[in-house]
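Question: Send over one sample?
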Amino acid sequence: MAVKPDIEIAREASKRPIQEIGAKLDIGPDHLLPYGHDKAKVDQRFISGLSDRPNGRLILVTAINPTPAGEGKTTTTVGLGDGLSRIGKKAAICIREASLGPNFGMKGGAAGGGHAQIVPMEEMNLHFTGDFHAITSAHNLLAAMIDNHIYWGNEQEIDLRRVVWRRVLDMNDRALRDTVTSLGGVSNGFPRETGFDITVASEVMAILCLAEDLADLERRLGDMIVAYRRDHSPVFARDIGADGAMTVLLKDAMMPNLVQTLEHTPAFVHGGPFANIAHGCNSVIATKTALKLADYVVTEAGFGADLGAEKFFDIKCRKAGLSPDCVVLVATVRALKMNGGVGKDDLGAENVEAVTRGCANLGRHIHNLKGFGVPVVVAINHFTGDTDAEIAAVRDYVAGQGAEAHLCTHWAEGSAGTEALATRVAEIADGGAAQFAPLYPDEMPLWQKIETVAERIYHAHEVTADTRIREQLHQWEAQGYGNLPVCMAKTQYSFSTDPNLRGAPEGHVVPVREVRLSAGAGFVVAICGEIMTMPGLPRHPAAEKIRLNAAGDIEGLF
């Protein structure tokens, strides 16, 4: 029997009016700004009135390092949220919005899969409510105003060699990584080297996802450093006069988006920084709103736990005062086989030995997550080719790590396939066993923070960097930025900076090639290895197969 593609399952969904979904969380229709019949933004005034309510339980879903075999972190996030609803809990889901870059590239969408999806799937994976366009426009408005300021006399005495604000585009386009602007003569300004990042790497995206309200948003936007003078003193966005207009462009984008799962569980989908080049979490305002409205909130952090979960704990929870109650770590038998040395074409054959070898990656993540003081449960995302012996090997390994594993069949069965996981997660979250603490204290020096993440999370032997990078960190510390957390930008495919080094490598070297100060967002980015802040498209991008059929329906999204 042929398996229906995700987009076909989503298109057949019986969606309920968004006002009915809001009512599940006691959000009245007057506080919803509808975008059609099935999605809406939640009014800021309503959110402001929730501050006195107690918080629900916060559950993080993360995963082992991603492989071409697939792990299904978002699918499990949705499945767990539906599972909690199924067992009678008042639940909500919080995930990120999808970027057009990976949608048309290789990774695909970000709405879950099978019978554990958020709908409307097509809109969510494309323009949705326009938030990413607003972020792109606000970011590039600032870029235009910087060049315009320089053109009209450069009152701030910006050193053209030290303009650090690049432009962004929500698309994978390697040709724009490094560019020269203002060519063509005097009327076009002063030529200089610059480049483009993808929108999800923008500091504006990070700020929108960390800001508490519009006033905090404007303050953070003004705090962004866009350039330096010849004396190395910083020039801020507010010095250019851009913070007010940027806030205006982001006014609607700041409001969380409310949609639903296939089983009508409320879902907040808001913000979308990547975890390999940014902090990888949905917005603070969406998460905090959900915690005030639901008894259990299921959220996710991007890519593997070495990136997304670490940043969720050390950046988002630290900055927002959040304290998670339980972590669900997603793994698949197929992905563990790949970590155990099996090629993608050979994953169909039973191979218990490879599964056991690959469990080293799973074990590393369990150990790391426990180090944050939060209980860990493993979700085995089931594929039809998994054998009983392979599943038993994973269960036995997890038990040996002092944790428990639950087989989940939500892709095929929806919430019925996560009922046991949801019951256990709710018990753990209610049990109060979590003793959350970040990995390092605020007062630790920046370089030592980078070393701490590399050594304790990646199990690296050494972190290397040019003298100029260390001097830059010391300079930022002298300017008052030493208490900021660090945001590690590295490949998502490995604990190391080598994407081909699977499993649980030990004793490797983490080279830091660049550091960037995101003063408005409130963290320092350490760019490691060969990671790019503007991805490229693969040889055969997904865009080649995305089209409208004769009926006008979208095909090829996944």
The longest strand covers residues 509-518. The radius of gyration is 23 Å. The mean pLDDT is 95. The longest helix spans residues 131-151.
